[in-house]
Amino acid sequence: MTRRLRILASLLAVLATLAACSRADRPADSAAPASEGPAAELRLGFFPNITHAPALIGLDKGYFAKELGNTKLVTQQFNAGPEAVNALLGGSLDASFIGSSPAINAFAKSKGAAVRLIAGSTSGGAQLVVKPDITGPEQLKGKTIATPQAGNTQDVALKKWLKEHNLPRGADGVTVQNLDNPRTLDLFKSGQVAGGWLPEPWSSRLVDAGAKVLVDERTLWPGGQFPTTVLIVRTEFLQKHPDTVAALLRGTRQAIEFATANPAEAKTVTNDSIKKLTNASVAPAVLDRAFSELTFGLDPLAATFPQLSKDSVTAGATPTETDLAGFVDVTQLNKVLQGNGKPTVSAAGLDKSQR
């Protein structure tokens, strides 16, 4: 009996060793990275557009830098969302203010792994503006309409709208041309494009150059609210540096509160920033019109994203509808809001990962 007990004990020891080896051999990324405290550096993306006014104000007023403390802030500007997505997925960017459609595309391309939506920034501020003699969808046939970049938020909105109105794209219908926003303005003035589905201030700039509004995108959404600009972050960065993400959100909150409480100064700060970045300022009338089209807020309007995901398929930006389970993480945002006595925001069930 004693000999049998010794043999049994030896077998149990071997099994325990094998189990430990099996655990040690598992990939390190099978579990979420542990928090490592504040990051040494935060690489933040943004666009030199009025729809990114909270980002521009946060940079100009030093709100981000102050909240980040010893974390170095490195910024990079982009013309449109797909460029920022490539930087995020390539690991050269940690967080970015970005359009809603590219945010979905980043999540889809990484199979739900690489990015998380952590806050809103801007709602509204996108329109289809065209030559004044165009009064309806059918008159767009044979015309060229511009968007900032293939797959960006306005590009998806235009292509979905064309499909809903049974307008084919291409030589037999409407040519959609992806152009940098300043180029669109130049080509509209010279008559080479008939208009564009554009973010502010570019839709207002075309209106100032003689265009008329054919579609205000706000009219296509319940309550007139849709996310034009949101804030996303690399998932790994969020997991490793939640305190740094919270600092970024505090800076964003201060920028939005400044824009709401001081609209005149917010316009000046935003316009001055755009001039520094693009060497072109916005005319006062254009600036006033553009700001009147926008609403700033931290709520990402998460409930709109399932529809936005469907729109990306309709527009041909993504082949299939994206499973958005786990896409939204407003944990740090709600902590920031609660800390200021503000109501929390909803993830609309999109924080529940099924992976």
Topology, please?
Elements lengths: L1 H23 L16 E6 L6 H8 L2 H6 L3 E6 L3 H9 L5 E4 L1 H10 L5 E10 L1 E5 L13 E4 L5 H12 L10 E4 L2 H9 L5 E5 L2 H7 L3 E5 L10 E8 H6 L1 H20 L1 H16 L5 H9 L1 E3 L8 H10 L16 H9 L16
Parallel strand pairs: 1-2, 1-3, 6-7, 6-8
Antiparallel strand pairs: 3-10, 4-10, 4-11, 5-8, 5-9
Helix pairs in contact: 2-10, 2-11, 4-5, 8-12, 10-11, 10-14
Please sum up the structure shown:
This protein folds into two domains: about 40-125 and about 225-340, D-Maltodextrin-Binding Protein, domain 2, CATH 3.40.190.10; about 125-225, D-Maltodextrin-Binding Protein, domain 2, CATH 3.40.190.10.
Q: What do we call the CATH topology of the largest domain?
A: D-Maltodextrin-Binding Protein, domain 2
The CATH H-level superfamily of the largest domain is Periplasmic binding protein-like II
| CATH architectural grouping of the largest domain | 3-Layer(aba) Sandwich
Low-confidence stretches: 14-30
Q: Total helix count?
A: 14
Query: In total, how many beta strands?
Result: 11
Distance between the termini: 49 Å
Placed side by side, the strands forming the largest sheet appear as 2-1-3-10-4-11
Please estimate the helix content.
Answer: 40-55%
User: Could you give a short account of the major beta sheet?
Assistant: 6 strands, mixed
* Overall shape: globular
Write down the overall mean pLDDT. 90
Number of domains: 2
Rg value: 24 Å
The CATH top-level class label of the largest domain: Alpha Beta
Order of helical and strand elements: HEHHEHEHEEEHEHEHEEHHHHEHH
- Helix/strand structural class: alpha/beta
Strand content: 15-25%
